[in-house]
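Q&A log
Question type: sequence-to-structure
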Amino acid sequence: MAGDEHVVISASADYIRITGGMEFGAEGAPDPSPSAVARMRAAAERTVPALRELTGRGQPWRGARPMTPTGMPLIGAVADNVVAATGHNTLGMTLGPVTGQMVSDLITEHKATQRSG
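Response status: OK
Response body:
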């Protein structure tokens, strides 16, 4: 996270993802606000100056995401053999590995309980 900028920079082997807010809109809403995209890009470039070399590349993206009113994820068993892990708001990619471990622990614990019970 880029400190007081309220922007998250997340890198993978193929791309760099910059996020820092949510825009609420109906399905088919127009592209993300150009001013919001510019603000996030500028904050990311101040935090990681080498990103300036990528200016003009990349695509703003917005898509439907499962969200909770508080921003807290919902993680847990919802039925026999079904574990839900959703509602991470804009931190899904960042929290994905931690959530995956939690789901794995839930499943492993469930299997252990079934064997001992």
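Response note: The first helix runs from residue 34 to 47.
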